[in-house]
Every structure is written in structure tokens, then in C-alpha cells.
Prior knowledge:
The structure holds two protein chains of two kinds.
Chain A lengths: L10 E10 L6 E11 L4 E5 L6 H8 L7 E6 L2 E2 L5 H10 L1 E4 L11 H11 L4 H14 L15 H12 L6 E5 L7 H16 L3 E5 L3 H4 L4 E6 L2 E7 L10 H8 L14
Parallel strand pairs in A: 3-8, 3-9, 6-7, 7-8
Antiparallel strand pairs in A: 1-2, 1-4, 4-5, 9-10
Chain B lengths: L1 H12 L2 E2 H11 L8 H13 L3 E3 L9 E4 L1 H12 L10 H11 L5 H25 L6 H33 L1
Antiparallel strand pairs in B: 1-3, 2-3
Helix pairs in contact in B: 1-2, 1-4, 2-3, 6-7
Amino acid sequence: MTSTHQTEPTLSLVDASRLHGEGPQAVRALGPVSLDIFPGELVAIMGPSGSGKSTLLSLAGALDRPTEGKVLIEGRDLADLSLAELAALRRRVIGFVFQDLNLLPGLTALENVALPLELDGSPLEETRTRALEELERVGLKDLAHRFPDNLSGGEQQRVAIARAFVGPRHLLLADEPTGALDSVTGEAVMRLLKSQCARGRTVVLVTHDAAHAAWADRVLFLRDGHIVDETVAIDSTGATQHGLPGQVQQNPAQHSQPQPLSPV
Amino acid sequence: MIIRNSFLTILAAHPAHGYGLKSSFEASTGGAWRLNAGQVYSTLSRLERDGLIQSSEADSPERRSWSITDDGQAAVASWYDTPVDNRSNRDELVIKVLVAVAAGERDMDRVLQTQRAATMRRLQEFTRHKIAAPPDSELPDLMLLDAMILRAEAEIRWLDQCEQRLQASAAS
């Protein structure tokens, strides 16, 4: 989709569709959709309910299979993988974050973060070290031994993000991760996701919140199972404190908009 | 009226020359609004005519130092005491959508989506500025950015709501 990328996409959908039912009764939940998402990208998907956002995320996360087309993660066609290989992919590459109920209540923050590594059979000592390292990255090292009940909503989401990126995991699929948070906490979560992408990790985020979607490098708009639009963030090189309003005045497109900041 | 009242507010704090007023106004509004010399001096002469400011004698308008009068102080107080009425219903986007709907435009989805994408680009741009803003940024710059982000967000939410209303109306 973007020709400037030399690297292999982390995630690709190639004419992927998901139909429910068969024949004339079939309902098309998604597609055909084609897209490439590259390492280090933060991509937001927006669209009304029923537009296919969650279906797209399920296909991307190997939780569901396309009825037509392909889903590739780092060049590997998911259709070619066995169930065991898919499970390994979910432990080693893909992490999920949902709106809520992300953490197991009976485990501490540290144990929650360590879980994917533990399930993958890593040695206990390494598991612990890696989990603690990841908790430190999200600023929660000091709360490592707390249980989810004793963490705020924002802290729980940060633990979930740490778990989604623990060890070798580097693709985070998030469904309304800020949906249950107040706007300040939600913004802190977006800032954290953005910083993870700066480390070369990849985030695909479904959201209905325009202010949070605006943190993304690209925003894809879904309607009736299709991508109808895509907006790419303008590179803000040369962004200065006074650059913003100046640019707003110079941009001719702005003049078709109400100009509340101009003389009236 | 905004420029006039802003000048009075600045002069209520301290006397200033025309150029100083222009700079203070531009800095305090985060650079949102650039003034030209003509605007500055015509505003000052109107304020003087109305007895709200007075000036020292000088051989050219640029050299005159302006200070506020008692009537000017009262005008500032009255400006603060009067809430701004932002109830404008003549927003160009709102009117455009309403007229298109009334005219029976079939492809309203496209009209709404074109705008939504444009507003999202703007919101992404503002957000980039917010991300890049150093922690010691000037308060007016940050507050201006907040205002623009929230306005763009409201616009997108309104477009979403228009779409839902049109769908509900088409279904019934």
C-alpha cells in the first residue's frame, strides 16, 4: 500500500473477506480488504458498529480465518499454519488488548505479564526478568506485585500492554483499549502505544474515539466491510510552537471551514 | 470587538506602544491571529475617540505610548462580566450538510466521509503538534491546540451522528 517501505509488512491482508453463512444467505462481515501494516506503525481503524472493525482484528490476530483471500503475518500465510503453529504465533508475536477484563484477577501484574512466556515454556527466571523489564517500560515496575483489583483502570491497561509486548511479542492488536478510561488516562495509554511504536513495535487499534485515533500514523475508515478512506498523518517536521496556527492560516482547505480563530 | 477589547485588556495591565500591543496580542493568542499595522492603528484611534485610552504626545503615531482611562478600565470589567455567546448556527459545514440533505442528495455517505477524512487529517496534524510540544511550551500555545483538537473532535462526532440519523431515517 505504501511504496516507501522497504521492509516486509508485519501484517498483510490480501483480498481478505469473512462471510458468515453460505450461498445467497451469506452475510459479508468484511471485505474484500487488502492492506499492509509495517513495523513501527500505529494504525487506527474507525467505523460504525457492524462495519467490520472487530472482524478485521480477529482475522489479523489469527482468532478467525478469512473465507476468501489471505492474512499474512511477517510474510507467513496463516492458512499454511497448523493450530499449534497459530497458537505459537499468538504467544510469540501477537498480543491483544481489549476494552476491559484484560487481566486474570488471581495473578499479580507481574504474573499476568509473564504468562505468555510461561505458556511458551521459557525458563522461570528468564520469564520473570523479561516481565519485569516490560513492566518497567510501561512505568509500573513498582506495582509489579499488585493484583489487578488494586490497580486503576489506566494501570490495568498498561499491564495489558506490557503483556502484549512481553518477550519477543511485537504486534499489538487492540479493540477499544481506551474505551473504559477517562480522557486523560486514555491519552496516557495512547502516548504509551505511540512510544512502543517508536521502538519498532506495531499497533493496530480499533476505536470510535476520533481524538485517540488521531494519534495514529494512519487512520483507516471502514464502512460495510470495506476500507472507504485512509488518512495519513502529515509529517510534522518543522513543527514549532508558532508553526501550527500559521499553517492553519496558509492551508487553503481551512478557508472552507469556519474560522473561529480569525476576526469575525 | 475582540481586537478592541483585547487591546484594552493589555493596556489595563500596562501602557504600551502600538507595536508592543500587536506583539502582546499575538503572543497571548498563541500566534492564532496576526494583526497588520492598519488594524492596530485604526483600533487605537477608535479607542481614543471613545475616550477609553489616551496617549502621550509624539510626532508620529508609532511613537505614541498608550494608556487606559477610567472608562477603559470599566469597559474591560464589563467585557469580563459578559459571557461570550458562541451560538452561531451558521457554521459552513452544518449548512452544507443540511442543504445537501434537504436537496435529497443520494450519496450523503460520500459527503460526510469526505469531510470526516479531512477533519481527521487536521486532527492528526494537531495531535502531532501536541505530541511534539515540549513540556515547557507556552500556555497560550497549548490552550489553543486544545481548543482546535476538541473542535475537530466535535466535528467528527457530529458527522458520525449525522450518518446514524440518516441511516435510521432511511430504515424507517
